[in-house]
Design brief:
The protein is α/β, with parallel strands linked by helices. Helix content is 35%, strand content 21%. It has a domain at 272-388: Thiolase/Chalcone synthase (Peroxisomal Thiolase, Chain A, domain 1). Strands 1, 2, 3, 4, 5, 6, 9, 10, 11, 12 and 13 form an eleven-stranded mixed β-sheet that branches. The chain is globular, with a radius of gyration of 20 Å.
Length: 390
């Protein structure tokens, strides 16, 4: 079977809801990272055989195959096709895995994995609300209701269930949230994100500026400020401060075959070692990364101690905390430059975003192997394991 290699990975700096990226159409947001891949790498972009774009809220400005529209708005040739996919929060991590599978199968040599989400302009849940409000039904069918009577599938409730099941308390979550901000602050101030962030020109009340710093980081974060935020449910532990931030952003990862590397004189930054996707309990929902990681490590013939660095999406603080407890992984190796609690979680763009951050952190800290995973709606999870090459 052919090997799949990562040549480059980029992302925009996260934009807060209603913030610096709010004036950017999602299509143009997506085009920015496609352009960056073409600009940063010396090859004929017409060699790209497909762009696989993750996007969760595929309605309004993100409808009509948003990935294809981003290609048409970008510097890439119009001859490059694109497909938009939805595996909830794991959409663009699945884009990476589909791209790698195309390479490994021998049917393609150069594929761009990509993600777009403007949570300001196409709000979370808007595609459901539109049809429900119009009396056109919901996504819970009669048969699904029979299978799960009275259940409202909710990531928030799943997070509260994780807290109780794994024995965490509010202070555990808040401490993890503070660490996320502290790591993101250190990474920003040291310039650690410089190679992965695509600066974007934006209009602000002060005039035209370059957006290149993650807008969600609380540079004044403290345990006092985080613990002072109200819980979202009486008796619960989840707050807006220990959950991921609503975020606008896009990201892209160039995946190539060995033949493409030779043909275009490209130097790979990493090799993809394992692609895993699993599904489990759709009610607790957010726990599946634990079991997906078990399967990925088994299939790769590895143990958790063989992995030098981990990116576990911080959808809610109990997710990475439960993952650490289950796997016995070293806490110092997780989300070393901060995670979605500080940097934001642009839904469909988060998979390729996390890969950009993981790969850059591995290079800076000399890590050889890295593992990325995230929880996803419906009780699903992707795991991708990579090996750094330079």
């Amino acid at each position: 079977m052919a090997e799949a290699y990562i040549v480059d990975a980029v992302r925009t700096a996260g934009g807060r809801r209603g913030g610096r990226l709010a004036g950017v159409h999602p299509v143009d947001l997506g085009a920015a990272t496609l352009d960056a891949i073409a600009d940063r790498n010396d090859f004929d972009p017409s060699a790209i055989e497909d762009v696989i774009t993750g996007c969760v809220m595929q309605g309004g400005e993100q409808s009509g195959d948003v990935g294809r529209n981003a290609v048409l708005a970008s510097k890439l040739p119009d001859s490059i096709p694109s497909v938009s996919i939805d595996r909830q929060c794991g959409s663009s991590q699945q884009s990476i895995q589909f791209a790698a599978q195309g390479i490994m199968s021998g049917t393609q040599d150069m594929v761009l994995a990509h993600g777009i989400e403007s949570m300001t302009r196409v709000p979370m849940g808007s595609t459901f609300k539109l049809f429900k409000d119009a009396g056109l039904g919901t996504n819970k069918s009669e048969r699904l209701e029979e299978a799960y009577p009275g259940v409202q599938f909710s990531q928030f409730m799943g997070a509260e269930m994780l807290v109780k099941k794994h024995g965490f308390d509010r202070s555990d979550l808040d401490q993890f949230a503070l660490e996320s901000h502290q790591k993101a602050i250190a990474a920003t101030e040291s310039g650690a994100f410089a190679n992965e962030i695509v600066a974007m020109k934006v209009e602000t009340p002060e005039g035209e500026e370059m957006h290149k710093v993650d807008e969600g980081i609380r540079f004044d974060a403290s345990m006092e400020s985080i613990s002072g935020v109200k819980v979202l449910q009486e008796g619960g532990a989840i707050t807006a401060a220990n959950a991921s931030q609503i975020c606008d952003g896009s990201s892209a990862v160039l995946v190539c075959s060995e033949q493409a590397l030779k043909d275009h004189g490209l130097t790979p930054r990493a090799k993809i070692l394992n692609l895993t996707v699993t599904a489990g309990d759709p009610v607790i929902m957010l726990e599946e990364p634990l079991f997906a990681t078990d399967r990925a490590l088994e299939r790769a013939g590895m143990k958790i101690d063989d992995i030098d660095m981990y990116e576990v999406n911080e959808a809610f603080a109990p997710v990475p905390l439960a993952w650490l407890k289950h796997t016995g992984a070293d806490r110092s190796k997780i989300n070393v430059h901060g995670g979605a609690i500080a940097l934001g979680h642009p839904l469909g763009a988060s998979g390729t975003k996390l890969m950009a951050t993981l790969l850059n952190a591995m290079e800076q800290k000399g890590a050889k192997t890295g593992l990325q995973t995230m929880c996803e709606g419906g009780g699903q999870a992707n795991v991708t394991i990579i090996e750094r090459l330079n």
